[in-house]
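Ticket #4471: structure export looks truncated?
Reporter: QA, pipeline team
Priority: medium

Steps to reproduce: submit the single chain below to the structure queue and open the exported record.
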Amino acid sequence: MLKLGVLDYGAGNLRSVLNAFSTIGHAAKLVTEPSHFDSIDLLVFPGQGAFGDSVRILKETSLWDPLRAWLRAEKPYLGICLGYQLLFESSEECPGIEGLSIAPGHVRKFRAEHGLKIPHMGWNQVSWVKEKSAWWQGLPNPGHLYFVHSYYPEVADVSLALCRTDYGTPFISGIAKERLIAVQFHPEKSQEVGLKLLKNSVEHLASKL
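Actual output as written to the record:
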């Protein structure tokens, strides 16, 4: 049985994420200290909060270095929301704070233009990249998933793109590599489509172990 670990550094409510994995038949445990990384196969980072505060807390709790080491070793990773944004080099939200720099690019803030409300909150269309169909097989293309965010990654390497969304500005709303998937939306809040994506992701990452 695949051992899932959900990164918990004391920010945000993780209950909905744990419940979502339980629903698809993959119970997960919380990762709260560095030693916990040694007992899992797949790391899930469903972060919430500010970019800079999260970096600070991860460092204060001694989780930053093992997280970075996990990603640099290309071990299975599933990032949600902030767990997506932190993969990049920096964010306009917190100038001067370095991200994990696993993917090239920077996190930008949506511009409040054309009557758009910030944060981007609610259901929006996601268009999947055909070349990454192993991740989204069985899902409608395009599909609709649930977002809550004011910032989005401006992805420098478009070959990483898993899916795209438009909210005044078109942006890459998810990326995927062989052992990594990270998305801006919240699969755990996106009903059947989100649960199916989580199931696909866990099974795909398990096949790479």
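Status: closed, not a bug. The export was complete when the record was re-opened. Leaving a note from the reviewer for reference: The longest helix spans residues 191-206.
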